[in-house]
Amino acid sequence: MMEFILSHVEKGVMTLTLNRPERLNSFNDEMHAQLAESLKQAERDDTIRCLLITGAGRGFCAGQDLNDRNVDPTGPAPDLGMSVERFYNPLVRRLAKLPKPVICAVNGVAAGAGATLALGCDIVIAARSAKIRHGV
């Protein structure tokens, strides 16, 4: 199994790195599952006092990987609203309820769901290269 979320704890800070740099760290189903598991760990572990989320490579997160959906090209368009309800709303709610500060370090692009993830954190630190875009 690929490690789409790299986790490292040092001096009470858990760093989570979105790790799909070849796809600008865009989300797929497995990445969602790994991030959810990492957030559970952060919630339960009292030695973790702060959470830092960042992205590997040249971008923070380009949002949902639209190529990850197994869609019949002759069929109807995928229901992206389902992705929002199933994955992103619960993710942002979980971040908001986390009883520890969550810091997001944005490098490069944070688009769509990536922008939602970043803006759902308590503090956003953006590199000069950061470009945050939400919506079309």
TrEMBL record:
- Keyword field: Hydrolase, Lyase
* InterPro entries in the record: ClpP/crotonase-like_dom_sf, Enoyl-CoA_hydra/iso
The catalytic activity of this protein is classed by the Enzyme Commission as: 3.8.1.7, 4.2.1.17
Q: Name one GO biological process term.
A: fatty acid beta-oxidation
Q: Which Gene3D superfamilies match?
A: 2-enoyl-CoA Hydratase, Chain A, domain 1
Q: What GO annotations for molecular function exist for this entry? A: 4-chlorobenzoyl-CoA dehalogenase activity; enoyl-CoA hydratase activity
Protein name (Swiss-Prot/TrEMBL): Enoyl-CoA hydratase
